[in-house]
Amino acid sequence: MNDNEFKIKLKLNVMAFVIATAGTLCFPQILNLQENTLGYTNSIFSIFIWVLCTYAVNWSLHTIDLEDKRGWAIAGILSFLFTTAMLFGVRLEAAGNVNFKDPSLWISLPVLTCLFTILVRKFWNFLGGVKDRKNSYAKHLQMPQTPERAAKHADILTFFFLLICWLPVFLAVYPGFFVYDAQDEWLQVASRTFTTHHPIVHVLMLGGIVCAVHKITDSYNLGIACYTVLQMMIVSGGFTYLLSFMRKRKVSKAVRIISLLYFALFPVIVMFTLCSAKDAIFTVALLLLLLSLLDMGSDRETFFASWTKMAFFVLSATAMMLFRKNGVYAFAVMALILLFYHKHYLKRIGLLLAAAFCSYFLITAGLTTVLHAEGGGKQEMLTVPIQQLARTYKFNREVFEPEDIAALHEILPEEALVLYNPKLSDPVKIRFRNNTFAENKSKYIRLWARIGLKKPLSYINAWLVNSYGFWYPDTVIDVYSGNTVFTFTYGDSSYFGYEVEEPGFRDSKIPWLDEVYRKLALEISQEKIPIYSMLYSPGGIFWCIAFVFAYVLYRKKYHLVIPYLMVLLVWLTVILGPTYLPRYVLIFWFGLPLFAAMLLEEV
Q: What is the DSSP string of 332-389?
């Protein structure tokens, strides 16, 4: 070793020591210690953290390319966002707000960003080496193509295997989870009074089946069960198609078997498959759209030469938009991205996008006209501004002039404002006066802007605390805590509704299994198990997806980036929503095997 090499090595060792030591000192800032700082500082655990950090950082700095500016930039942005989420999230979970004047926050941010950037870069290098060795091996080992007849048999077996695995849980929670706006949707059909508050297609599906079966059998439970079975078949069909897609892309058999078992047995998948809410069908449509986007990006010439593939794209996009309104907003942005990315096929991609949007608007407008459906109001789109005004009114009322209070009460009466819940906008927004707002929108927009200029940090905290469950891994989802519904009162967890709303009722055929799912839905039992708990965390899975997204971007696998962008766009719409619940980001769980295959196999 010459003098120059020795000096470089010494500098890297010193750098590793400094970064690891600073990172260990700042580490408590991203731990929810509930103000018991001695649990970390006065513990040998902190020594272990310091030793591991020193070794990992030192090893990383000596083995990664320090000149790779692009890789460092992408890893740095990802690490900065992750560190910010952790620093903000731990404060929101503990105190309900972020104190932006806390110096420890701003000291920890660059230190931990630097630490995580180095670790991320090292892990990407490790993944790249594994993939290169695997690709080199794959050149000498050609996977045999499954015969068409055998593939069809495999798909049929997969479809029924999933249904059989879900059947015991269906019997245990019979007639299914009739919850999350289910009663309202059924009432619209039963009373022939429709609104556009919920997707009309889903209202007709759910309410129509329940009412039709009840008319024939005089049993609402049987009607709910029929809808649940139909949804089970739709979800099973979507998963079967995904596994078939993975087989055609020569994803390893081990990955496909693990994916099948995951779909069949993982509780989050099973719960939402048996839940009457629109989320499951919306997510299946979104999942199929992701596969179509993969198809489109990996072989454009073949895709745009196949009318079957193009029709599948239009159908999946239309279905996704029909079952959730935020799908429309996300796909509108995706349309612009697709027009740019596939500019060499501009005419065809333009026609496909036009067909999808026209289909959506014609179906929605046609049903709205035929059913004389009334508008659903603007409160859903104004969730964040409503929460911002309500929070500032509660905690900083002194910034409101008398005329401001008078204007605020015109759209949000006092009885609504006193119900402000930082984690849930429903108590306030449901009392929002849409007609008054519509008469003079500019007046109330000016009110919102005027108060925001006086208390910008209050506005930021109002949005953060209303959405942090989607991006902070350690969140305990308890947004409905204390709310009484038909058969129970929410306690320390609001992970899943577990309800059978009227006119149905729970008629369990396997009570012990029903109790298992009740605990999963309404207690924090799974959150008490390290590592495993992250499989239930929307924020935890989000950062796994973000990590893979950044990695494929770093690897310049742009055909894989597009599907991740679609997921990101949907996520961006829900962080502007009324609260954080797993059902709004169900694609995290439904798409997990696909994301894994995209990372491991680059399908």
A: HHHHHHHHHHTGGGHHHHHHHHHHHHHHHHHHHHHHHHHHTPBP--STTTTHHHHHHH
Q: What is the distance between the alpha carbons of residues 551 and 435, in angstroms, rounded to a whole number?
A: 48
Cα separation of 273 and 279, whole Å? Answer: 9
Rounded CA-CA distance 203/189 in Å is 7
Encode pLDDT of 449-490 as tens digits: 999 999 999 999 999 999 999 999 999 999 998 888 888 889
Amino acid (1-letter code) at residue 286: L
Identify the CA nearest to 561 among candidates 291, 255, 294.
294
CA pseudo-torsion sign 532, 533, 537, 543 = negative
> How far apart, in Å, are the Cα atoms of 507 and each of 178, 208, 313, 495?
12, 22, 40, 22
SS (H, E, C) 455-498: CHHHHHHHHHHHHHHHCCCCCCCCCCCCCECCCCECCCCCCCCC
Cβ proximity of 426 and 579 under 8 Å: yes
**Residue 251 three-state SS:** coil
How many CB atoms within 10 Å of residue 281?
24
Question: For residue 401, what are the contacts with CB-CB under 8 A and spacing of at least 6?
Answer: none
Burial class from Cβ neighbours inside 10 Å (0-12, 13-18, 19+) for residue 298 reads middle
Cα–Cα separations (whole angstroms), residue 416 to 134, 425, 433, 441, 579:
60, 11, 10, 20, 17
Residue 421 DSSP class: B
CA distance 531 to 540: 10
Q: How far apart are CA 219 and CA 226, in angstroms?
A: 11
Tokens 């090499």, residue? Answer: 5
Q: What angle do CA 541, 573, 454 make, to 5 degrees?
A: 110
Supply the pLDDT for residue 379. Answer: 81
Dihedral of CA 71/76/82/85: which sign?
negative
Q: For residue 232, what pLDDT is reported?
A: 97
User: How far is the C-alpha of 189 from the C-alpha of 205, rounded, in Å?
Assistant: 10
- Could you tell me if 355 and 314 are in contact, meaning their C-beta atoms sit under 8 angstroms apart? yes
Structure tokens at 135: 């690709």
Distance (Å, whole) CA 377 – CA 17:
58
* Two tokens, residue 498: 């577990």
How does DSSP classify residue 178? B
Residues 6+ apart with CB under 8 A from 419: 427, 428, 431
Over the chain, what is the mean pLDDT? 90
Question: How far is it, in rounded angstroms, from Cα 105 to Cα 90?
Answer: 11
CA-to-CA separations, 538 to 300, 485, 578, in angstroms, rounded: 33, 24, 16
Phi, psi of 278 (to 5 degrees): -70, -10
> What pLDDT is stored for residue 139 in this prediction?
47
**How long is the chain?**
603
Q: What is the pLDDT of residue 602?
A: 66
Ranges of residues in the chain with a pLDDT under 50 are 137, 139-141
Q: Can you give the pTM of this predicted structure?
A: 0.92
